[in-house]
Amino acid sequence: MRPLRMFSAVSRVFHTSMQESPQTEVLQVVNERTIIRVLDLSMRIGDSMLVAGASAHEVTVAVSRVARAYGLGVVHVNVTYTSITVSHHRSEDEWPTTLMRVIKSGIPDHLKLQRLQALLVDIEGGMPLDEARITYRAIRRTPFLYRSAIVLLSRAVLATGVAVMFGASVTIMALTFFAALCASLVQAAMSRSRVPIFFTQIAGGFAVTAVAVLVSALGAAGIAPFTGVRASIIVSAGIMLMLAGMAVVGAAQDAIDGFALTATGRILDLTMQTLGVVLGILFGLEVGRVLGYPMPLPSEPLQFATVGSVLVGAVIASVSVAVYNGAGLRTLIASGLLSCIGIGGFLIATSLNLGDAVASGIGAFCASFVGALVAHRLHVPSVAVTTAAIIPLVPGAAVFRGLLAVVHSDGSTDGMLIAGGSLIAAMTIGLALATGASLGLTLGTPVRTSLASVTRSRPGVRKR
Q1: Residue 375 burial (CB < 10 Å; 0-12/13-18/19+)?
Q2: Which among 200, 219, 218 has a CA at the least distance from the CA of 208?
Q3: Angle CA 266–104–84, to nearest 5
Q4: Is 456 a domain residue?
């Protein structure tokens, strides 16, 4: 008997047993009408969150949380870039209840996303289903926080903040503001006419470049106050302006989380928007060259100015992006502070002789990691503060230098190699930003959860 017991003990070390299996849970009985209402509410909340800027993983978790709160233990959620499907199967002897909703494209609205996340907390806290449906309708019908004129001005201020980072003079800042405002007005008019975003990006890139070419020509003619003006700052800031609204962090997060279809759709959308900007700038530069007003190729790439100018410009740019994305006051403050952390990480990394791509990734990681820690405490979406914080690190200057080198190359091998090197460097920085931001969110979320659990488990002070 003793050898058998010893063998049984050794066997339990290597093999599982039925006794270790979890017990069957008692499921709440929910009628079919309630199931449909719960699935409809959860699906609509997920739809609104995805349009507002949440990642596919966040949407999947949110849908499951709503269903579980109202008694549906297990639901199957499938999120793609264009649709969301939710299914609940009560038993093997019944047909599953499945709903599908087509997702329409929209603009990021981080305040609405913040309110939807608060609704999820209320639902898990016991909010009745009818009240939750009414609250959701009120959130969905809430207009964008800022008026159209404020959004247009915020985009122009964003470009001005970028110019401050490069040490621009008052003249260059004013010209950058004017060029960005022209591009924003053109894009807004085309959007109201339902022109596809690919063509609006082309028009915006052309408008910014046209102003820069005109300024360069006036400076070359010796006309004050345009003499000595670095027109390349205008286009570089314009590039960062038109790339600011792209969901780079969300696309990278979806790819890391395994949502291949959603990530592919977002990446393709990002590629087409970026290609539109590139074509618009190339067209503007080529038109200037044909008319006899070519922009000179700078001998050195644009460099950041003093630390103070970089920090001030980064705060201006990140807060402007947050306004453009419809963020509330808490998100605006958090975005400004996190932009300082991100640009500070970048500057420290470059002082250690690290490359721009690695330094940009480190800066994005620092901003997103801290953002994941403080977002829950401030009750703001982490993706909102992260998206705004990394905007000052977008490689607008490298993109423009590469495009300008393409125009000056005249098809020569050496010229195309120089242009290709600059564009590849810009692409590498973009990938590093997306990777660093996604890694920061991925690592910051469990750390935040651990810190919260430690805080909850800490014993209170005894009363005498």
Answers
A1: buried
A2: 200
A3: 75
A4: no
Residue 415 corresponds to which tokens in the numbers above?
């010229």
> Distance between CA 72 and CA 15 in Å, rounded?
33
**CB 206, CB 281: distance < 8 Å:** yes
| Residue pLDDT, tens place only, 266-284 | 888 888 888 888 889 889 9
Residue 65 placed within a domain: yes
Q: pTM to 2 decimals?
A: 0.82
Output the average pLDDT for the chain: 83
Find the radius of gyration of the CA atoms of the chain.
Answer: 26
CA–CA separation, 396 and 405 (whole Å): 14
Structural domain of residue 191, as residue ranges? 148-451
CA-based end-to-end distance of the chain: 59
Which strands, in side-by-side order, build the sheet including 83-88? 76-79, 83-88, 97-102
- Looking at the structure, do residues 188 and 110 belong to the same domain, yes or no? no
Amino acid at 162: V
Instruction: Mark whether 419 and 446 lie in a shared domain.
Output: yes
Helices (H), 92-194: 110-124, 129-140, 148-165, 170-192
Same-domain pairing of 185 and 329: yes
Q: Which of 111, 104, 120 lies closest to 51, judged by CA?
A: 104
Same domain? 62 vs 97: yes
Contact 108, 325 (CB under 8 A): yes
Number of neighbours of residue 35 by Cβ within 10 angstroms: 20
Question: 224-253 pLDDT, tens per residue?
Answer: 787 878 888 888 888 888 876 556 677 777
The answer to whether 281 and 235 have CB atoms below 8 angstroms apart is yes
By C-alpha distance, which of 119, 108, 136, 115 is closest to 52? Answer: 108
What three-state secondary structure class fits 85?
strand
Task: State whether 120 and 171 are in the same domain.
Answer: no
| 441 and 312, same domain (yes or no) | yes
Residue 103's alpha-carbon distances to 43, 83, 166, in angstroms, are: 10, 5, 40
Domain assignment of residue 26, yes or no: no
Beta-carbon count within 10 A of 223 CB: 11
Using the structure block, give the residue that is written with the tokens 């590629």: 271
Q: How far is CA 271 from CA 55, 132, 380, in A?
A: 18, 38, 28
Helix 307-324 crosses helix 382-389 at what angle (to 10 degrees)?
140
Give the CA count within 13 Å in the CB-facing half-sphere of 333.
Answer: 7
What domain count does the chain have?
Answer: 2
